[in-house]
Amino acid sequence: MIKLSSLNRLFVKLLLGFWLGSSLIIGFVAVLPLLQQNHDKQPMTAKQQQLLKRTAKPFIEDPKLLEDHKALKRLHRHRSPNGKMIKFYITNDQDLVINSRQVPRTFREFLLISEEFNAPMSHQFRDELIFGPYTFTAGEQEYRIYSRVPDNHPRPWFFFFNDHKLLTTIIAMILSGILCGFLAWYLGKPLRSLKHSSNALASGDLSARVDDSIAARGDEMGELAQAFNTMAQSIETMMHNQQRLMGDISHELRTPLTRLQLSLALARKKQQSSVEIERIGYEAEQLEALIAELLTLSRVTISNTENKVHLELAESLSQILDDAEFEAEQQQKRLLIDIPENISLDHYPKALSRAIENVLRNGIRYANSDISITAIKQHQQVVITIKDDGPGIEDVELEKIFKPFYRPDSSRDRESGGWGLGLAITQAAIKLNKGEIHASNIAPHGLKVVISLPERICRSN
After folding, report:
1. CATH number of the domain residue 221 falls in
2. Is 155 a domain residue?
3. With DSSP H G I counted as helix, E B as strand and the rest as coil, what are the percentages for the chain, rounded to 5?
4. In sequence order, which residues have a C-beta less than 8 Å from that of residue 297 and are 6 or more positions away?
5. pLDDT of 303-334, one tens digit each?
6. pLDDT tens, 212-221?
7. Contact status, residue 39 vs residue 157, Cβ threshold 8 Å
8. Into how many domains does the chain fold?
9. Last residue of a domain, one of 303, 318, 342
10. Phi/psi at 71 (nearest 5 deg)?
């Protein structure tokens, strides 16, 4: 016995879909002629037989009439009591019509059909009815008589398709296209959802999952969706655990660091200052700053408590822009700001400000003389571009600079290059605002950082 689950497999669905579609189309095309034949061909009625018998009677009684041209001509132009022109055709034993030189195509077709039917019959053509034969003997020769009557009898709907074969072919192609299109949509929908979720996961959205309706399918697509969701859940859990561990370790390091700073303060108070103690103090301050950066990264990535607001970008960044402009002036550099006041968007102001500040400070630090920040609206996105005329970064390292603890130039020490956390915090803050950040080099030298943010962030986000 076939299990129900085996019938739900993708292979079976494909096989049944194509087989059913092909069978329906082939059956539709093949059955139409049979329907027409079964409807058109009927046994000859007693009334029709009496009409043919009555018409043949004069020829049976006087066989010479079969040689009388006028008598045969009158037979060919006989009218019924209701005024319809009834035409009779008499054939000899060689199936040659003896009373008319012009034989219509429909009558010749009827002769062929009647041979297959092998019995007196009637056949309904488009606008006429032909019935016969009635066999009679005259002058020791056998003859057959047929009748052809004008008849516009209403025809069933399927005659339309049989009469218009080109249109029938086009309709069959359209139906097959619709069926194949539905099958392609049915199979493509879970693949599109899986592709969308994969791209979202690859771009850093660890909450991306395939829709439950697709995962609930009983075929291979459903199994693939379930496997993807399981993998995504494991990755999200692992990353959150790693980020939480980083935050916990940073938090725990603050206790011994505080004790160390207290000991240094006591030593200085007792006038025990020395080069070594000053070095220890400096390293403690650097460690304190590093821990603060780690905690900031942890807050942005896993424990953001800031409320989302809809605010003008210029207003939200006003403080950090003022600070950056002042810092650039102190270094004899110029910061150009072009942010229209009418640009507003949904965002987390502290996180976004921190992200922009980190990029600006890097630009000011490495620029030769000019730094610029611009913002424009583009396709329901707010695009922020920050440029500097510094040395730039190797192309192979452009995507790596946003990773934690990554520094492009290994020769940079903490005094010049920090710990490699600033741009990691920037990327985390931009992702919190559902945006994207990319860096590229400018010819002949310089670096450009482009941040794209949606004007609206969905409530679920």
Report:
1. 1.10.287.130
2. yes
3. 55, 20, 25
4. 243, 246, 404, 421, 424, 425, 428
5. 566 788 898 999 999 999 999 999 999 999 99
6. 888 888 778 8
7. no
8. 3
9. 303
10. -65, -40
Alpha helices in 118-211 (DSSP H): 158-163, 165-202
Residue 280 shares a structural domain with residue 383: no
Please give the residue range of the domain that contains residue 231: 203-303
- Residue 22 located in a structural domain: no
Q: Are 451 and 383 in contact (CB under 8 A)?
A: yes
Helix (H, G, I), strand (E, B) or coil at 317: coil
Residues 450 and 313 occupy one common structural domain: yes
* pLDDT higher than threshold 60 for residue 461: no
Whether residue 320 is contained in a domain is answered as yes
Q: pLDDT value at position 2?
A: 43
CA distance 443 to 441: 7
Are 92 and 228 members of one domain?
no
DSSP letters for 55-68: HHHHHHH-GGGGG-
- pLDDT band at residue 159 using 50, 70 and 90 as cut-offs: low
Rounded alpha-carbon distances, angstroms, from residue 198 to 192, 218, 221, 240, 432:
10, 21, 14, 19, 19
CATH assignment at residue 56: 3.30.450.210
> 221 with 349, same domain?
no
Question: Do 320 and 385 fall into the same domain?
Answer: yes
What proportion of the chain, given as a percentage, has pLDDT over 90?
Answer: 16
Query: Which secondary-structure segment (H or E) carries 90?
Result: strand 85-91
Q: Which long-range contacts (CB under 8 A, 24 or more apart) does 245-252 make?
A: 246/294, 246/297, 246/298, 247/294, 247/295, 247/298, 247/299, 247/302, 247/303, 249/294, 250/291, 250/294, 250/295, 250/298, 251/295
CB 130 within 8 A of CB 89: no
Distance, C-alpha 312 to centroid of its chain? 36
pTM of the complete model: 0.52
> Of 286, 303, 320, which residue constitutes the final position of a domain?
303
Report the candidate in 253, 357, 243 with the shortest Cα–Cα distance to residue 302.
243
* Averaged pLDDT for residues 215-242: 84
Note whether 426 and 418 are within 8 A (CB).
no
